[in-house]
Design goal:
The structure holds two protein chains of two kinds. Chain A is mainly β. In chain A, 0% of the residues lie in helices and 50% in strands. Classes of the chains: A mainly beta, B mainly beta.
């Protein structure tokens, strides 16, 4: 069974709308992350959280807002969606933020029309 | 800037043959780069295959090896004899040794093994 659950697997949205990508991890990890992979581009780091606190934000736009309601949750809210936001979004976790072994979810593929 | 470049896929290799997936990196803002290979098997999430944090050292896992070469800024992935179960997408990645969760990935190399 997957230990990092991302929901939904696929998501279609219209330009200008808002969506929330869900991520839950059942590994007991203290650090969680979001990465994004656009078509034909490498995986790109977006955010890191440690003990539910933001550690690093490499996303230029404030339209992307992580939300950590519980220690094992890190959702990603995206507002005012644009076609360029179309990508697969991966959630990951590690035991601690200084731990090099990341565990990834299967991703949410977002298409913005 | 910091970046990773790896063999452009897809790559197809016959079972029992040898494999090399090239990876080179640029670490202009990272004093002590850490290097990783991650792998995504069909139907699974991305997972760590091996890592090396010291230049000159070799990492190994599941028959794969990679040596951290600081002079050539390379971290090529090799295996002497591939198996069908090695079919996957392989990603080379670079970290800064402090914030390990923040990795810079290559574009990935899709490997298919012919039986």
């Amino acid at each position: 069974d997957p230990k990092i659950i991302q929901k939904p697997k696929y998501l279609v949205a219209v330009t200008g709308s808002e969506k929330i990508l869900i991520c839950e991890q059942y590994l007991g990890h203290n650090a969680m992350y979001w990465y994004r992979q656009s078509a034909k581009k490498p995986l790109e780091f977006m955010f890191s959280y440690s003990y539910q606190k933001l550690m690093d934000n490499q996303t230029a736009s404030s339209r992307f807002q992580p939300q950590s309601s519980k220690k094992n949750h890190l959702d990603l809210q995206i507002t005012a969606l644009k076609p360029d936001d179309s990508a697969t979004y991966f959630c990951a976790s590690s035991q601690e933020s200084a731990n090099e072994r990341l565990f990834f979810g299967h991703g949410t593929k977002l298409s913005v029309l | 800037g910091d970046s990773v470049t790896q063999t452009e896929g897809p790559v197809t290799v016959s079972e029992s043959e040898s494999l090399i997936i090239n990876c080179t990196y640029s670490a202009t803002s990272i004093a002590y780069p850490n290097l990783f290979w991650y792998v995504r098997y069909p139907g699974e999430g991305l997972q760590l295959l091996l890592k090396v944090i010291t230049a000159g050292q070799k990492g190994s896992s599941r028959g794969f090896e990679a040596t951290y070469n600081k002079e050539t800024t390379s971290f090529h992935l090799q295996k002497a004899s591939v198996q069908e179960s090695d079919s996957a997408v392989y990603y080379c990645a670079l970290g800064d040794g402090y914030n390990q969760g923040k990795l810079i990935f290559g574009q990935g190399t899709k490997l298919s093994i012919k039986p």
